Amino acid sequence: MPTTADLRAFVREATTSSSSTDGATSLTADCNGQIHSETVKIVVLGAACAGKTSVIKQFVGNGQEFSDHYDPTERKSSHFKTVLTFDTNTQKITHWALKIVDVPVTDVPIAAVMSWSNFLQFDVANAAAYVIMFDVSAQFHSFDFVRTIREQLVNHPSTSGGLIFIAGNKVDLPYQLNRSDIMHVVQKQWKCQYFECSSKKNFHIVGLFQAIIEAVQAKQSAAARAKAHHSEFHGFRRTFKSDKCCIQ
């Protein structure tokens, strides 16, 4: 795996869409036989007024999409962005077709497992990564909502396999929460990556999504190594059985 310094992301194109259909079909190109395509679904959840949509639009719109006017998200929307990463170790270019699903807070159930199961029809299930966002300038209820959503994600079979990232937005405003306590809960207890960002200042937005891509890539590489080791082990067992000797 390349280090963070080795992994460079270059934006090739960026488009947005309000369609809920799956439009994140990756393209295939040739670059000396070293191009690889991946399609990744990222679901963004969180408390009301946390700035989820603003963060997504800043990333997709390359830092040109912020508005001070608050317009609550009423319907689920999907946003698409193409990112290229280059691994200096393997000289391989990876084409990432990102589908980022913005889920309105009004659609998120926080109690019954039954209602959470029904909620999965909003394109939430089987995502590669989940970003749960809260407002660092709000009172504790914003972060408490994050806690509830995370518990639902890790306990449901169709979402438990996804990576979880916690993002504290609006760091350009005064903190209302104890920062060290938040980091302790997220990193030590939940074992999740924690990012602080500002959609207004376009601060750490790209870094958040780059970290997601790196984590997905690392997870895929680990799974590939485990699969190769498993195949090698069983191949050895078959060879050992076929080469058994009989001593008289």
From TrEMBL:
In alphabetical order, the GO MF annotations are: GTP binding; GTPase activity
InterPro entries noted in UniProt: P-loop_NTPase (IPR027417), Ras-like_GTPase_Reg (IPR052661), Small_GTPase (IPR001806)
> What single Pfam family name could you report for this chain, choosing any that match?
Ras
SUPFAM superfamilies, per database record:
P-loop containing nucleoside triphosphate hydrolases
Which superkingdom is the protein from? Eukaryota
- PANTHER family named in the record: RAS LIKE FAMILY 10 MEMBER B (PTHR46350:SF2), RAS LIKE FAMILY 10 MEMBER B-RELATED (PTHR46350)
Name-wise, this protein is: Ras-like protein family member 10B
Organism of origin? Hypsibius exemplaris (Freshwater tardigrade)
